[in-house]
């Protein structure tokens, strides 16, 4: 086994006992006798599992502080808290702070080893899932034949050879990070890091630490996103959520090409390509005072806009086929035949955009239904449109026949036009009409043609 366990305890006998137990179980160990030693070991290299005594030489809650420090670096690392002064309040506090388990001294050796084995399994499972998701996500292609997607693919080719800052706008789940990754992979920076900083997920008090890093009192350094992305690309996702005071500091970095770490005195220069994205309209955010106009002009050298999925219906059949194939390959299961013209799919609003569609296909693939009816039922249930046809029929029964027919024709032809990306000839051929007759029908129904 290659997993490494960090043991932190001020009692040499207990450190030795735990270390021997862990080595006998087949794991590697590192040890620390006090708070500063532990901090140095953690900052030097994160362990796969940590065993921390609550009370060391610094104070009564040294272990909790170290636990918080580890979680700030990687929240997935399991931490087992041990204490010879245990009480219920302390146990609750450690678990609330993110501890994997809490165990009292003197401890049962078999129980401790059982905790460690479970912790290692938990960590490896999370690591494997992240690696799988990263591999799956980074292998995705930008799929679609709508004008919007074709235009974006062309834009990526043109801007990837430049060093221009890029702003990607589009609703949540539309593929903004995917576009940013494609720009990075097509650029001369592809061999260097691609770092993502999500402005919407950061703690309000940690923006500076996450961006610029920190120089600590004990001499150790915590690197921020800017340094991690050196020579590569930094994507600030949901940049609209960054506080105004941090926005001004980002602007200064873009202007001066340097920054200082938190608690640092020296200027740090980095070579980073900045890409920003947001699902909000930044111009509106500027108007209401939530975003700096000068920063907007700095990050918006080149803008890419991704339309919502419900505005590019012609991409849906291609995406269904692509995700069906991709997911079946990754899960090593048979590919399902999903009706690409399913009315529930084509009429759905897709508020979650491509991500929602991908999740739907993944759900179907995992369930492995053995008939088209079962696939259709999963789609209905997932999209919460089970009574779609009944609702539509009931609504149409309340109006005159002519009005109901016109409404159906308008909805039907609008969907077909979108499906064929506005191509009149292909739409006419599919619906069984002459091209000229379709033109007249569209005009009569008040459907605007688009190219």
Short account of what is shown:
The protein is α/β, with parallel strands linked by helices.
| Gap between N and C termini | 60 Å
Principal-axes shape call: globular
According to CATH, the homologous superfamily of the largest domain is: P-loop containing nucleotide triphosphate hydrolases
The number of distinct structural domains comes to 4
CATH architecture of the largest domain: 3-Layer(aba) Sandwich
The parts where pLDDT drops under 50 for at least 5 residues are: 385-394
Helical amount: 40-55%
CATH class of the largest domain: Alpha Beta
CATH topology of the largest domain: Rossmann fold
Largest sheet: 5 strands, parallel
Question: What is the oligomeric state here?
Answer: single chain
Secondary-structure topology with pairs:
Layout: E1 4-8, H1 12-24, E2 28-32, H2 35-44, E3 49-53, H3 62-73, E4 79-83, H4 88-96, E5 101-104, H5 109-138, H6 147-160, E6 166-169, H7 176-185, E7 194-198, H8 207-212, E8 214-215, E9 221-222, H9 225-228, E10 233-237, H10 244-256, E11 258-260, E12 267-269, E13 273-278, H11 282-287, H12 293-299, E14 302-305, H13 315-331, H14 343-347, H15 353-367, H16 372-383, H17 388-397, H18 401-419, H19 424-431, H20 435-445
Provide an overview of this structure.
It is a single chain. By secondary structure, the protein is α/β, with parallel strands linked by helices. The protein has four domains: 4-134, Rossmann fold, CATH 3.40.50.2300; 146-307, 3-Layer(aba) Sandwich (Rossmann fold); 310-386, Helicase, Ruva Protein, domain 3; 390-445, Arc Repressor Mutant, subunit A (Orthogonal Bundle), CATH 1.10.10. It contains 20 helices and 14 strands. The strands form four sheets. It has a five-stranded parallel sheet, with helices on both faces. A hairpin with a 5-residue loop joins strand 8 and strand 9.
């Amino acid at each position: 086994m290659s997993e490494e366990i960090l043991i932190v305890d001020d009692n040499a006998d207990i450190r030795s006992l735990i270390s021997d137990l862990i080595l006998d179980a087949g794991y590697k160990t590192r040890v620390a006798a006090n708070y500063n030693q532990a901090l140095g070991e953690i900052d030097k290299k994160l362990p796969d599992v940590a065993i921390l005594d609550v009370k060391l030489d610094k104070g009564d809650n040294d272990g909790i502080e170290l636990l918080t420090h580890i979680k700030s670096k990687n929240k997935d690392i399991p931490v087992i808290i041990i204490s010879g002064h245990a009480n219920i309040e302390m146990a609750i506090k450690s678990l609330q702070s993110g501890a994997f388990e809490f165990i009292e001294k003197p401890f049962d050796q078999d129980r401790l080893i059982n905790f460690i084995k479970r912790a290692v399994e938990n960590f490896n499972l999370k690591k494997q899932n992240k690696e799988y998701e990263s591999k799956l996500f980074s292998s995705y292609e930008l799929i679609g034949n709508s004008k919007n997607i074709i235009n974006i693919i062309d834009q990526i080719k043109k801007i990837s050879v430049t060093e221009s800052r890029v702003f990607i706008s589009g609703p949540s789940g539309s593929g903004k990070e995917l576009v940013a990754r494609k720009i990075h992979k097509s650029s001369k920076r592809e061999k260097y890091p691609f770092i993502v900083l999500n402005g919407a997920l950061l703690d309000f008090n940690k923006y500076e630490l996450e961006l610029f890093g920190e120089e600590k009192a004990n001499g150790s350094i915590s690197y921020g996103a800017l340094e991690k992305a050196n020579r590569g690309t930094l994507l600030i996702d949901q940049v609209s959520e960054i506080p105004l005071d941090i926005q001004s500091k980002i602007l200064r970095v873009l202007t001066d090409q340097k920054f200082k770490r938190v608690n640092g005195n020296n200027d740090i220069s980095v070579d980073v390509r900045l890409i920003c994205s947001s699902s909000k309209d930044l111009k509106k955010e500027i108007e209401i005072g939530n975003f700096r106009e000068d920063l907007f002009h700095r990050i918006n050298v080149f803008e890419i806009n991704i339309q919502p999925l419900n505005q590019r219906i012609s991409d849906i059949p291609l995406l269904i086929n692509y995700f069906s194939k991709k997911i079946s390959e990754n899960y090593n299961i048979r590919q399902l035949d999903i009706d690409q013209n399913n009315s529930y799919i084509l009429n759905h609003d897709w508020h979650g955009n491509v991500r929602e569609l991908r999740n739907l296909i993944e759900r179907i693939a995992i369930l492995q239904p053995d008939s088209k009816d079962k696939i259709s039922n999963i789609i209905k249930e997932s999209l919460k449109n089970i009574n779609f046809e009944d609702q539509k029929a009931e609504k149409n029964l309340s109006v005159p026949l002519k009005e109901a027919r016109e409404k159906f024709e308008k909805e039907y032809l609008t969907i077909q036009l979108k499906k064929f990306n506005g191509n009149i000839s292909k739409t006419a051929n599919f619906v069984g009409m002459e091209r000229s007759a379709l033109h007249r029908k569209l005009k009569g129904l008040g459907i605007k043609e688009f190219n």
